[in-house]
Amino acid sequence: MINEEIFHSVRLDEEKCKGCTHCIRHCPTEAIRVKQGKARIDEERCIDCGECIRICPNHAKYAQADSLEVIKNFSCAIALPAPAFYAQFKVGISLGKMLQGLLHLGFQEVFEVARGAEILAEEINRYLKKRWIATPVISSACPAVVRLIEVRFPSLIENLLPLDSPLGVAAKLARMQAMEKGYRPEEIGVFFITPCPAKVTESRQSGDGLGSIDGAISVANIYSRLVNIVGELEEPPSLSLASFRGIGWARSGGEQDSLEEGEYMAVDGIHQVISVLEKIEMGELRNVVYCEAQACVGGCIGGVLAVQNPFIAKVGINHLLKRYTEFRPIKEEEMEEWRRKGVFERKEIYQAKEVLKLDKDFKRALEKYQMIEKLLERLPGLDCGACGSPTCRALAEDIVREKAEEVDCPFMLQEQLRALVREVHALASKVPQTMAKKEE
Amino acid sequence: MEEDKVLVEIEREIVGGDFQSAGDVSGELKKVLQQVGFPPSFNRRVVIAAYEAEMNVVIHAYRGIFATEIYEDRVHIEVDDQGPGIPDLELAFQEGYSTAPPHIREMGFGAGYGLSNMKKCSDHLEIDTRIGEGTKVVMDFFLNPEK
User: Which CATH class is domain A10-63?
Assistant: First the structure.
């Protein structure tokens, strides 16, 4: 089990990086700097949203996912396809065939994350009925949004849904099911078919309990192996359990469609998410009970590890929603048992990441803030990125954090050079007093 | 006891009816509080109250000045506007009471929680309002309110 302290799925290919500044200005948490001609990702700030992967013209950013080889280490490898996986294939291909395709690739079992989402939705309904919850409750399904809140909106942590993600729920149920079939815990490997890098990170941090996820394989990887054969596959009976309720979670708006009536909202695309979170933080939207927020445009179908354009993928999802209308009811006894076993519990409690603080010491932080304001008066305010920081303000912050120097700014460098030249010039015109001639 | 010194000052102008920039000043204040390292729960109540005060100017007044002083253990906010003033202050404090015209309510603003929210979130609130002249809101937030 890989469980690194700070693991990030978003990586840089040094060879391909040309040191341009597209990514630094696009990063929602200002986590990237260009140093010595290469982009550097600040691990503490990165939320794995994948924006830099999208924007990089040289394809130097990539998401590290697992290869399909890893499933061979387990005699019971279970595939957990994300709902967005279904949206990749041509309209008309049944869910049964897609899931059969996963078995064809070497998995022994499948468990749909869409089914996990349906079950989770029941628990969300129950949670939303509680009194004294901070509204709007913000969905915890998108790990990039959860990280964003921990990094940039710590005061909204109390609004985050304190339940596990559909992936976490599905992983636990899949493992329980396999154990009921007689597999020993060490024989079971749970693998997520992921549309996004943030979910790879979530998988890595799943620990080694019931909800452990042993690997995350990209949707793109699986798609490329199945695209040409999936249509020909035999369709086994009753392989697919999920209905429109869970499948809809593939796209923005799907969560609220699976819940009981209520005042809900959905926002997608990281920059729109930020602007909505700003409003929530300022006390607006209190009448909204549940806010579904996804980092990618369109929701999970817009993930960078998916193949299909998200708007085209939505067409596919809409077809499936109409086709799979039969929801398999969930018994309250089952829910009770799952609750008891901790199926809905999050392993990691949300934690404010204090990366925005200028200093641990309050007074030092204030001094640094004042230094930033002073520096800003002298910096050009062009936000050109030539210094390697995303904005002039970010450079000023980097300077007071001792991660950059004033002369990293080409304008400041030129100014200092000019001052130096003036001084040299003035010195050059001076002669020793013994040799000086009386001025005419 | 150390001397009570202003550590950061922010002063911004707010233009009545400028809904596009509405919230910018409160957003800026939030960033400062975060960077300096005030606790998230404290920042939240300052920002909610600041935003209400800022919005009141945008919705009701012609223009206003938003001034913040940040101290080691408190935040002081003054929002001074030129506007119509509040005709019945007591009524304005009631939740759900609003004098915002319908076209502004349609935009989702002016729900009538402004003053009561400001009162809830701040530790000290003073309102000086003059009909036909304007309103001045003064708020204080203490890091340790019980002191």
Answer: alpha beta
- Interval A115-154: pLDDT, tens: 999 999 999 999 999 988 999 999 999 999 999 999 999 9
Contacts of B25 (CB under 8 A, 6+ apart): B10, B12, B14, B50, B54, B66
Report the distance separating Cα A140 and Cα A125, nearest Å: 14
Of B8, B36, B47, the CB nearest to A282: B47
Q: What is the pLDDT of residues B23-66, one digit of tens each?
A: 999 999 999 999 999 999 999 999 999 999 999 999 999 999 99
> Do the chains contact at B35 and A358, CB–CB below 8 Å?
yes
Least Cα separation, residue A342 to chain B (angstroms): 29
From chain A, the residues in CB contact with B43 under 8 A are: 155
Question: What is the value of ipTM here, to two decimals?
Answer: 0.81
User: In the CATH scheme, what architecture does the domain A362-428 have?
Assistant: Orthogonal Bundle (1.10)
CA distance, residue A365 to nearest chain B CA (Å):
5
| Residue B16 contacts A, CB cutoff 8 Å | no
Domain map (residue ranges) of chain A: 10-63, 68-340, 362-428
Give the nearest partner residue to B41 out of A155, A357, A360, using CB atoms: A155
| The CATH fold of domain B8-142 | Heat Shock Protein 90 (3.30.565)
Cα-based angle A284, A286, A291 (whole degrees, multiple of 5): 95
Structure confidence at residue A4 (pLDDT): 45
Predicted confidence band at B97 (pLDDT cuts at 50, 70, 90)?
low
A25 contacts A62 by C-beta, under 8 angstroms: no
